[in-house]
Specification:
Helix 4 packs parallel to helix 5 and helix 8 packs parallel to helix 9. The longest helix has 17 residues. With 286 residues, the protein is of the alpha/beta class. Helices cover 34% and strands 22% of the residues. The strands form two sheets. Strands 1, 3, 4, 5, 6, 7, 8, 9, 10, 11 and 12 form an eleven-stranded mixed sheet that branches. The chain has a two-stranded antiparallel sheet with strand order 2-13. It has nine helices and 13 strands.
Length: 286
Amino acid sequence: MRLHTPSLALVATAALLSTTAAKSGPTLVAYVEVNTNAITNVGDYRTADGSVAFDIGIIFAANINYNGTAAVLYNNPKVQATLDNAANEIVSLQQKGIKVLLAILGNHEGAGISNFASQAAAADFASQVAATVNQYGLDGVDLDDEYADYGTNGTPQPNGSSIGWLITALREQLGGKLITFFNSGPASQSLSSSPASVGSQLNYAWNAFYDTYQTPSVPGLSNSGLSPAAVDFGSTPQSDAVSFAQNTISQGCGAYMTYGLNNQDHSAYISAITQVLYGQTTSYAG
């Protein structure tokens, strides 16, 4: 498809907003289930100084399917519709200074980020991911080791090298774009014992257990790239979200991850978080 290129005036306006806004602190992240909600919800919140509240929006989620011989990237109709509408949904967020990533995870077919049998297999899948990221102008990819059901359809079991092969191949093919990791499944165990040269190729890793505060163990990734906070808008009490924000600041962690941002006004909840992270309230402009 042909994507519309934003006008120079719009780019200049976005640049001006990003340079005049003064929000400083941890990167605030929001996963959005695009099967039922719009990724553009991420851009509906601003802190008191006019900054966007969220720094990263993650489209949840594309899948890793299995075609009988190899892993293939699959976008369900809702994910594909979001990508096809990039000019209105992805670019509009980027013009506000928000990075937009595509999450990828298993689909109960036996293929996932932990069972590539060779570097070549990992590189082949990485090329599929990179092609999608580049085609739709995304800012990167989020890796998630859930729902693979390893062994289904005769697929191999996880191995300790697979995630490292994939991260390395993605870094080679995506250059400076973001690569983040939802610290789940066998991949989390593999990364925790991998050389720092693997983890250092990631930009961020988030705790995968919602309603908890746990620091991911990824050698090579410093506190600036970690989110021990895992907040679900649908289940995490606001008091816990505030406590997680306080811990994030006191421990010098550089990210704060949330999930389940929907079409409703969550400004009171988000404001309680941003008051701790940035010393600013947040308002809703949806």
